[in-house]
Design goal:
single chain; alpha/beta; Four Helix Bundle (Hemerythrin (Met), subunit A); Rossmann fold; 6-stranded mixed sheet; 13 strands; about 45% helix; flat; disordered N terminus
């Protein structure tokens, strides 16, 4: 039997500024709730009455009836709105003082300031979105790359929900068939053969396992990775950093030790959001007042190495020993990277006659080898694009899906051992509960509050 939370809608009407803080050509104030139209209309002088899903040009009035601004006002009548409630949106000029005035007057007339994510939370509670789609709203707002935005838009459009819906239906039908056999055994019903039960469980389990396998890529696209560039002074780390960014961000001089602090910049690599970190050159520096800044920079470099998801160990190719061996100082750095995801980058390869036999040969000056390096970074991150539009992209989703897969595997084992169907049903119900938790059908209130608290106000 499915257990759903009893959803109680708050009767109050909420209001918020839905556009980012600051000045702009347009600023939007959004009202949602049963009093939205009642609150909005006295604040306006409209040329035509508000009508559902129609934009109206009107004047915003102050408390004396004087015109403050012209605005485009749109009314959406429940349930045909984003939240499933009545919504009124003011699209006025984006002057903070004007938007704050609209907000203040709406509150005086009976609205309440919306909590972060409350508009989307109401969309979820009204059934307009499931929980995976609601999470995708925040992912879309937070996107830093076009690829992130495309995947979030696919999730918002219901890609994950459409993948799960038929599997959930198959699971419900299997549970119903088994429960009927248990409850009405004396009525001589046609029971499913054990082989058919195993096949049905496998038909649900295999697609869910495949979906669970998308989590690594989905999380990488959603959260990105930190990539630290380390090496000895004057190995060309900052030059490589600038070349990867395709603009001059770090200062470059021939003098060793120019970089005294870590520099972090975002990099879009084939849709994967990376944080690229240039670090101070690693070397032993005697303690002295004049070396204090460099010693602090080296300490921060080691911290960046510890926190990085991937490390580029940059070596000056001209310093390689006969046979291509690394110099002693670089061997020491390499020894600290044992067991860590890292790439050996032999920079300044344009200055040597014979191409090196190990590592990735690059030239920050000419750009040679940069494409090979970028592909090696993607390969090491296992950033293989997924053909499926449905992806698992956060830990909550992955945990729920893994619980469903584990329960189905247990049910499959029980079916293989011809155990009584009561045992299978326990596992199948656990799998169904986990799928419901994934989409939000039975998600506890405290988890919902935590999810929507991460949104910004007005969304």
């Amino acid at each position: 039997m499915l257990v759903h939370l009893d959803i109680v809608f708050e009767p109050d009407t909420i209001v918020a500024i839905a556009t980012p803080p600051g000045r702009g050509g347009i600023g939007i104030v959004r009202l949602s709730g049963s009093l939205a139209r009642t609150i909005a209309e006295p604040m306006l002088r409209l040329r035509q009455p508000l009508a559902p899903a129609q934009a109206r040009l009107g004047s915003i009035l102050d408390d004396q009836g004087a015109v403050l601004d012209e605005a485009v006002v749109t009314y959406f009548r429940a349930p045909h709105s984003y939240t499933g409630e009545d919504i009124v949106e003011f699209a006025a000029h984006g002057a903070p003082v004007l938007l704050d005035y609209l907000l203040r007057i709406a509150i005086q007339r009976g609205a309440r300031l919306a909590r972060p994510g409350e508009f989307t939370q109401r969309a979820y509670l009204s059934g307009r979105l499931d929980l995976t789609q609601a999470e995708a709203v925040n992912d879309l707002i937070s996107a830093h790359t076009l690829h992130q935005a495309k995947l979030a838009a696919a999730q918002l459009g219901g890609a994950l929900s459409r993948t799960l819906a038929p599997l959930k239906q198959q699971l419900i039908e299997l549970i119903a068939a088994l429960e009927a056999g248990v409850d009405f055994a004396e009525d001589d019903l046609d029971l499913l053969p054990e082989a058919a039960i195993r096949d049905r469980i496998a038909g649900i389990s295999l697609p869910l396992d495949a979906l669970a396998g998308t989590f690594r890529y989905g999380r990488l696209v959603r959260d990105g990775a930190r990539l630290a560039i380390v090496g000895l002074p004057n190995a060309g780390k900052s030059s490589l950093f600038n070349r990867l960014l395709e603009y001059d961000r770090a200062i470059i001089t021939a003098q060793p030790g120019t970089t005294r602090d870590t520099i972090a910049e975002p990099l879009d690599l084939e849709g994967i959001p990376l944080t690229l970190i240039d670090t101070a050159g690693l070397r032993d520096v005697l303690a002295a007042p004049e070396t204090e800044a460099e010693r602090e920079g080296i300490a921060r470099s080691r911290t960046s190495m510890a926190d990085a998801d991937l490390i580029l160990h940059v070596v000056d190719a001209a310093t390689l020993l006969p046979g291509g061996a690394l110099p002693l100082e670089d061997r020491r750095i390499a020894s600290t990277l044992t067991g860590r995801p890292s790439l050996l980058v032999l920079n300044k390869s344009d200055l040597i006659a014979t191409p090196p036999q190990t590592g990735i040969a690059t030239s920050a000056r000419t750009g040679d080898g940069l494409d090979v390096l970028k592909q090696a970074i993607l390969d090491l991150l296992d950033a293989q694009p997924q053909t499926e539009s449905a992806l698992i992209s956060n830990v909550r989703q992955a945990s729920a899906l893994n619980d469903a897969c584990a329960a189905l595997h247990k049910a499959g084992e029980a079916a293989g051992q011809a155990l009584p169907h009561e045992f299978l049903l326990l596992d199948l119900h656990q799998a169904l509960d986990a799928v419901d938790a994934l989409t939000g059908a039975t998600t506890p209130d405290e988890i919902l509050n935590l999810i929507f608290a991460r949104f910004c106000i007005g969304k």
